[in-house]
Every structure is written in structure tokens, then in C-alpha cells.
Amino acid sequence: MRTLISTAFISLDGVVEAPGGEPGYRNSGWTFKHTEFLPEAFEIKDREQQEAAAILLGRVSYEAFSPVWPDMADFADYKVMPKYVVSTTLAEDDLVANWGETTILRSLDDVAALKETEGGPIIVHGSASLNQSLSDAGLIDRYHLLVFPLLLGAGKRLFSATDKDTQKLKLVEHEAYANGLQKNVFDVVR
């Protein structure tokens, strides 16, 4: 069984929307506008590219990342990885040609089947709605969270407000940085 890892820049109050400057959100670009950049706090981002074997995205994140990430040196390792996009509306001709192998998955059942295949970890970037659905379905195995010392109020959240049973997490790695960022890596306890 493959490990499904959710990775996120997240505010202290749980917001994950538009961390890099995506349009349409009041606090867009919050990750670097309000917090001093310390390279050591982002080491996990390089490690994720080295350890992941595939990327899983929702349609909205795919449409935001696919025009930009293929040509960015910071994400070069992702270019050659298989990519999976969960969408009921995306068509094959909507996929970009310069980002390597991309497969459209139509349901959470397709994601569950993908987890049953051979291969290394699958990493989920962005994709707030998809993350909520994956979590609610019990499909996420690990969280890589860079928690920013900010309260953003409104915005898309990483975790849903669904009334569900308690889901226990085990802290397996953590570090706090001089700029207030916290790295928290949690395994989902089953």
C-alpha cells in the first residue's frame, strides 16, 4: 500500500487558501508577505520532492500549478513524476503537454485503488477541497504541515467541518524556527 501524504502551508487558524499569491483571496500570498524567509524552515519541501513517487492534485490546484511548475527549477523533480488529478469535469485535452505523465481520476474510489498499487509515496499539494474529502474518507496517511504564525480568519481550510469520529494523529517530526514557523509531521493513527 502506498502512503498518501498531505503537505500544506497552513495558518495557525487552519487556512490554506492562496499561500503563494493566487488571485481572488483577500490575504493572497500570506506565506511570504508577513513571515521572514528562513531557508532551513523549508527543507521539508526539498525532501518531499526527493521522497515522493507521484503527485495528487485536485482540479483547481492542477489548473493553478500546471502552467507554472513545469518550468520552475524549484519543482524540477516533480516534472518527471507521474501526476494524478482528481476531477469529475477535467478532460484529457485540458491537460498540459509539458509536465509529464498525468492521469485523471474521477473519484475517491480511484484514489483508494491508486494507493493499492506498487510504488512510493504520493504527495498532495494545495487542493483544499480534495484534502478535506481524502481526510474524511480515511485516505490520508501523513501530514506535512508548515504552520505560519498568522491568523487569517476566512479562507479555505485544510480540514473539513464534517461531524465525524475523532481521528488521532502521532507527531513524528517537529521543529520551530526563529521566524515563528513550525514544522509538524503527523502520521494518521489507524
UniProtKB/TrEMBL annotation:
InterPro entries: DHFR-like_dom_sf, RibDG_C, Riboflavin_Biosynth_HTPR. Residues 2-182 form the Bacterial bifunctional deaminase-reductase C-terminal domain. Transmembrane segments: none annotated. It holds the Pfam family RibD_C. SUPFAM superfamilies: Dihydrofolate reductase-like. PANTHER family: 2,5-DIAMINO-6-RIBOSYLAMINO-4(3H)-PYRIMIDINONE 5'-PHOSPHATE REDUCTASE, DIHYDROFOLATE REDUCTASE FAMILY PROTEIN (AFU_ORTHOLOGUE AFUA_8G06820). This is Dihydrofolate reductase family protein. The lineage of its organism: Bacteria, Bacillati, Actinomycetota, Actinomycetes, Kitasatosporales.
